[in-house]
Amino acid sequence: MATSSKQYKAIGEDLWKGRTEKINAELFAMTYGALVVQLIQDYEDYAEVNKQLEKMGYNIGTRLIEDFLARSNIGRCTDFKETGEVVAKVGFKSFLNVTPTVTHAQQVPPPPSPRSSTPAGQPAAAGPSTQMPQPYFTLTIDDNPLAEFVELPEEAIEGGLWFSNVLCGVLRGALEMVQIRVEAQFMSDVLRGDESTEIRVKLVKYLEEEVPVGDD
Description:
Layout: H1 5-18, H2 25-43, H3 46-72, H4 80-96, E1 101-104, E2 136-140, H5 154-158, H6 166-176, E3 180-188, E4 198-206
Antiparallel strand pairs: 1-2, 2-4, 3-4
């Protein structure tokens, strides 16, 4: 990795300190909370609210990435592990002043299917059973600025609301603009009674300079 984890952390801190258009954290949290409440009132369906928050985040992410690249001067990452380091230590820090803990998945090939055993002396045929799973990383957010002063009612928890789902959309939108298609989803949230707040970001594919498909 060309740039170390500590160097990325320093870049993120410098970008946050140099940001002049900072918004009050309490106002930011309350404004976002009001948005979520309005969506709940409009759709009366928590799954649809999750979808709308992710869609909003996607559109935000496609715009934030330009500012991020211009201010950070970070080039293309060498692999998906480095992408995770940049997202956590530079991206989150420079925009939200938080640095999630990033955990990279251990890439272990799946066991061969017992039905696809190869006779002795014959080479194994490549197939789905021998493919490596797509890499992913998990972001553990200790202090989620969107969730300040928030307590979810039991109805919202049972309905499956992911209060901060906009973050998943931001990650998807921003990374797609740099030719990395991902799936991002919350795995747990302290607002829902979990011990931690975690987002999993899984690589789908590298787009190789394809034009991103926008959400209508």
